[in-house]
Automatic annotation (TrEMBL):
It is found in: Cytoplasm. Keywords: Hydrolase, Metal-binding, Signal, Zinc. One of its GO terms (molecular function) is metal ion binding. Its EC number is 3.5.1.14. SUPFAM superfamilies: Zn-dependent exopeptidases. Binds 2 Zn(2+) ions per subunit. It is an enzyme of class 3 (hydrolase). GO terms for biological process: amino acid metabolic process. The active site is at residues 87, 152. It comes from Platanthera zijinensis. This is N-acyl-aliphatic-L-amino acid amidohydrolase. GO terms for cellular component: cytoplasm. Zn(2+) 1 binds at residues 85, 118, 180. Zn(2+) 2 binds at residues 118, 153, 390.
């Protein structure tokens, strides 16, 4: 079968692979209390059954990182890293047609679970691909490492950020990384060479409090409303470019309101007649990776939160914005990156079609790897699948899941057998 969904019926081998996927999906890995211990214990058992070496690292107490290794025949060559995160975003069960941790498989083969797409599918696909490669006697030239990291969904400060800074990471001598991507609604696979840069923006406004009946200038909420309006105008200008087809979603700056906070709420019977003296709004801001952050800062100071209107702001950068050489966090997808050619070719050998490489609108841990100057691609083999990450009723079809395993088998065997990377080795020597 090619990269399109293979036909039923599945074999008993495939049924066991689906069962292991469902088992992993049933572990409650959603924030704010992800069951990291449960996930690590399940994955470690899988890894031992395959014959991979396991190591649990704990850079932050209670937040384990599981690292698996299959050593190559040439330990001097940079290795391959397959990365996924252990955690999931929360789910609202009342909005789901099947409970979000049931991993229910419907008659059409859709497996429903929080994490089915983001990104527990790739974790099991990596393992099943390695299981097959071991079973058929494959022996890698380069070492293959698999990392399962905590806290990706909350920014990775206690997860991948600490991992890439560690001695254990340095010793792995990673040359290339595959990390999560996103579903494709068409029959073409998607691949991501960069992420947008995430920021949290908090704007605070102050003003005189006042009687609920009084009309006066410069109240905190009135000031904050001006901020909200200025942000909305900017947001429209960016969104219009996307709607008109002039720019892709990932090429513009997104800014979305996450919360608003002001005043005293009025429970029944409470007199509601006080105008607030403080008001606050929080925004999620994402920047294309080559964007100048100072331009954003200037816009905030002059237009969104001017001090002249009693406003202050905090722009919180979540993770790195440049690599260790001061370059944007972007992986080359041309002949300057020999890993790219191996990747592209392995996809085609597996019968897959690739869309033009994209920048991810959201953000992943791949940015920490790119920060270290290591090429990293975001890739989740999910074709003909609606994009449901962080949404209600997240699901993945069994056939798509199974086909992804075959794609990874091709990718892992090609990437770990790759002989020369002279260009990259020069880059490493420069560091
Ligand atoms: Zn994810
Ligand atoms: Zn996510």
């Amino acid at each position: 079968a090619g990269a399109g969904a293979p036909d039923f019926p599945s074999t008993s081998d495939e049924e066991s692979q689906i069962e292991r996927f469902q088992q992993y999906l049933r572990i409650r890995t959603a924030h704010p209390y992800p069951d990291y211990a449960g996930a690590v214990s399940f994955l470690s058992a899988q890894a031992r059954s395959i014959g991979l070496e396991t190591l649990t690292l704990e850079f932050t107490p209670g937040k384990p990182l599981l690292l698996l290794s299959w050593y190559g025949s040439d330990l001097s060559l940079p290795s391959l890293l397959l990365n996924s995160h252990l955690d999931s975003v929360p789910a609202e069960p009342s909005h789901w047609i099947h409970p979000p941790f049931s991993a229910h498989r419907d008659p059409e083969g859709r497996i429903y679970a929080r994490g089915a797409q983001d990104d527990k599918s790739i974790a099991i696909q990596y393992l099943e691909a390695l299981r097959h490669l071991k079973a058929r006697g494959f022996s890698p030239l380069r070492s293959i490492h698999v990392s399962f990291v905590p806290d990706e969904e909350i920014g990775g400060a206690d997860g991948h950020a600490k991992f890439v800074a560690s001695e254990q990471f340095r010793r792995l001598n990673i040359g290339f990384v595959l990390d999560e991507g996103q579903a494709s609604p068409t029959d073409e696979l998607r691949v991501f060479y960069a992420d947008r840069l995430p920021f949290s923006l908090i704007v605070n406004a102050v003003g005189s409090p006042g009687h609920g009946s009084k009309m006066y200038d410069g109240s905190a909420v009135e000031n904050l409303m001006e901020c909200a309006e200025a942000v909305a105008r900017f947001r429209d200008s960016q969104f219009d470019l996307v709607k008109a087809g002039i720019m892709a979603g990932f090429e513009v700056i997104s800014v979305n309101t996450v919360y608003m906070k002001a005043g005293t709420p009025a429970p029944t019977g409470f007199v509601m007649n006080l105008q607030a003296s403080e008001a606050e709004m929080g925004f999620d801001v994402r920047l294309p990776p080559t964007e100048d952050i100072d331009v954003l800062r200037k816009r905030i100071q002059e237009e969104w939160a001017p001090i002249s209107r009693n406003m202050t702001y905090q722009l919180i950068q979540k993770g790195p914005t440049r690599d260790i050489n001061g370059r944007p966090l972007v992986t080359a997808t041309n002949e300057s990156n020999p890993w790219w050619s191996v990747f592209e070719q392995a996809i085609s050998v597996a019968g897959g079609k690739l869309e033009k490489p994209e920048i991810l609108s959201s953000t992943t841990d791949a940015r920490y790897l790119r920060q270290m100057g290591i090429p990293a691609l975001g890739f989740s083999p999910m074709v003909n699948t609606p994009i449901l990450l962080h949404d209600h009723n997240e699901f993945l079809k069994d056939t798509v899941f199974l086909n992804g395993i075959k794609i990874y088998e091709n990718l892992i065997s090609a990437l770990s057998s790759f002989q020369s990377e002279s260009i990259l080795e020069e880059i490493h020597l420069e560091l």
